[in-house]
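Task: complex structure prediction.
Instruction: return C-alpha cells for all chains below.
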Amino acid sequence: MSTPDPFGILGLDPRAELTDADVHRAWRRIATATHPDRPDGGDIAEYTAASAAYTALRTAWGRGEARADLAQADLVAEGPTQPVWLSEPGPRPPGLGPWAAGRVRACWVLPLRVRHGRPARLVVRAVVAAAACLAALRVCAGDPAGPGLVTGIVTWFVLSGRGDLAPPPGR
Amino acid sequence: MTVWSWIRLRIYLWLLVKALKVAGWVLLVVAAVVLWPVTSVAGLAFAVAWLRGWPPVRLARTALWALPMTFISTVDRALHVHSWRALVLAPVHTWAASFHHLGGFHLVRTAVLLGPVAIPVGLALGSLLWWWRIFAISSGHAGWLASAPFTFDAQLWGRQVRTARGRTAAQGLVPLLARHGRIPVGGTIRSVGHGWHPIFSVPATACNRHQVFIGATGSGKTNLMMRLWAGWFRATLESSGTTGRRPALIVLDCKGGLDARQKAERTKRLLYGAGARRVAIWPEQASLSLWDLPPGDLAVLLFQMIESGDGAAAYYADIMQAVLMLATTAPVGPPLSAAGFLDRLNVRWLRVAWDDGRHPSEVDWIRAATKHMPDIQLRFVTLLQRLGPGLDGPGNLADADVWYFILEGTREPSVAEAQAMAITELTAAAAVGIGGTTEGPTSANTEPKLMLLAADDYSAVSGRVPLSNLYERGRSLGIGMQVSAQSWQGLGADEDERYRIAATADGGIWVLETPYPEPLSGLAGQRRVLDTARRMAGVAWGPDGTTQERRAWVADPELIRRLEVGQACYIHHGAATFVQVARPKPSPLTLMYQPLPAEPVVPPPRRDPVREPGPEPPPVPVQLEDVLGPGGPW
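Output:
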C-alpha cells in the first residue's frame, strides 16, 4: 500500500461498516481545509496525504485491503503469537533466516499436515514400516545388513508417505 | 548326396540349432536359480511394473533410491571387517552359505541378509528386462500374434490410467504448487519425449507465456485451467514476496450462464487458498470504471464499441470519432462516469469546455458536428445502457488480485463483445501501469506487473476482436495468455488464424477429449519407431522378417480421441505427456490460517444514464474539478 495508515490520515476508525460516503465526507473535510487554493495557501502535504488515503479507501475492496495490511502489520509487531505467518511467504519469525524459517515452518505444520491428510493410511504405512524394520533387525541380528535394510524401509516410508500428508499452507 | 543324407543333415542342423537354444535357456535358468536373490527381485519388479503400467525409468529410479541402503550396510560392514577383500566377498559368502541350509527360514534369512545388495541390482535388472519387453513388443519382435503391439499397448494404457488415478487421489502428491515453482497437474499416464515423472508438472513460467486449451464441454478443461491459475498465482506471489508486487489474474468467462457463477465461486475459494487477498466476481460482486482509461484510449474504445460501416457511414463514423475525442480529452479532464460522459455529448457543453481562446480549431470542429450531436448521444445512451453498470465504477483492477469476469456470450453476444473489448482495454492499461492500478505508470526502472489473462471459450465473443488479435495484444504487453476453445474449429475463423494461435503457443498446448485432434497432433510432430514384419510359417512366426523405420505420432490422435473426462495431453517442444488432471483443492491448512477475506462489494444500484430532459444543459461542468482543479481523485 502507498500509505501506512490511510484510516488514521482521514481520521477514521478502520471499521468494516465504513461506507463510501463516510470516507468521502472525511476526505472532503480535510480537502476543503487544506487545499492549496485557499487564501492562506492550505497545507499541500496534508492535502496530498489525504488524497492518497482517499484513493486507497474509496471502495470497499480498498478498505478491506487496507484493513488486512493493518492487521498484518499488527501481527508482525506483536510477534508470532498466532501461526498466521505459516501461510504467508513474506513475514517470518524474527531472528531466523529464510532457510531456517522454512524448516521451522515445516516442523510446525507437520502434525497438522498429518491430521488433515490421510492419517489412517499413514498409520498403516507406519505400522508396516515398523514391523518390517523389526523383522529385518531380528532376522539380521548382528549383521550389517540390518541397519541398511532399516535405512531402505525408512526411505520407502518417507517417499511414499508424502502423498498421505495434506499440502503445506498455501500449496 | 543322397536324399536321405540331405534329410539327415537338415535334421541334425535343426537339432543343433534347437540344442543351442535349449542350452542357452538352460544356462539362463541356471544363472537365474544360482543368483536367485537378484532374479527374485528382478522378477518381482518386472511383474509390478507390468501390473502398474510403470515405465522402465521408474524401476531404475527406485534402484537409485535403494542405494542408500547399500551404502549404510557397506559402511557398517567396513567398520567390522577392516579388510577390503572381506568387505567385497561378504555378500558372496552369505550367498554361498545359503546353499548349505536350504530350509525355508534359511532362504528367507539369506534373502534378507543379501537385500542391501540384491534389491538395487535386482531393480536395475528388472528395469532392463521391462525396457526390452516394451521395445520387443512395440517393434514387433515379440508377441504371438500380429496384433500383439496393439493389445499390449491397450493393456498398458489401462494400467497406466489406473495408476495415475491412484496418484491424483493423494492430495499431498498434487498440491497447488510444488518445489522450484512447478505446478503439479496430476498423475502422469504416459510420456512421449518428455522426461517421465510420477506427477506431471509444468513450470509456472509457462503460464507467463501463451497457452492454448482445446477440449469439449465437460472434458475437464476448467479444472485444468483453475489448477494452473492457482499454481501460477501462488508461484508468482512467492517469487515476488520480497518486492511486494502482487500478481494479477484476469479471467474472462465468455460463455456465461449459471454454470459460470459456480465456476467463479470455485475459483474464488481456490484462489483465496492460494494466497489471493481479494477475488472479485464481475458484474455481481464488483464493478470497474471504464472512465479510468487514459482519455485517448477511452475515445478509441468508445468508438470501436459502436458499429460503423462503409461509404456514407464512414463519413459519419469520422465525425463521431472526432466528437468522442473532444468529449474525452476536454481541458477539464476525462469524464468520470457514464452520466458525465453523456452530458458532454452536447454542443453547448463542448463549446464551453473548449472555447477558452486557446483551442480555435476544436471549436470549429464542434460547430461542424453540431447537427450530428443528438444522434451520437442517442447511440451512446443505448450502448451504455446495454453495457450495464458493471463498467461504470466504482473500482479498478487494482482493487483485487483476481478478477473473474462473467460475460453472457451465449445469451447476449453483442453486449458481451463490447464488454470484452472494454475489459481487455482496462487490462492492457493495467499491464502497463496506468488507468487501473494504484502504482502509477511503469517507468524504465520498475518491473511490469505480472499478469495472466485467461479467456475461457473466447470464441463466444470473438466476433469484433478475433482471438489472434487478443493473443498478439497480450504478447506485445508481456502478459501471460491462456485461451480455450471447445474444438479446433472454435479457435479461430479460418485455418490460418487457428494455426497462428496454436503454433505460437510457446507455453504449451493442452488437448482434452476432442473429436478432431489431428492438427494439434501435427503440431506435436512425429517420432521414429521400428516396425518389424515377419513371415508366417504355418500357424506360427517363421525365422524370416524385416525391420524398418517408420514415423509415428508423438501425440497419437487415437489416444486423444479416447481420452476420458479429466485426462489431458500436454504438447510442448515436440513432446507429449498424457496426464490425469487432479481436481484443484487448496490446502486445508491455508484456509485455517488465512485472514478472512473482506465482504464482497455490492455494486451500486443501477444508474440510468438517460437524464431527464432539462431546459438547458449546464453552462459549465459542475463537478469537483471546478472547485479543486482537474485531475484529483474525486
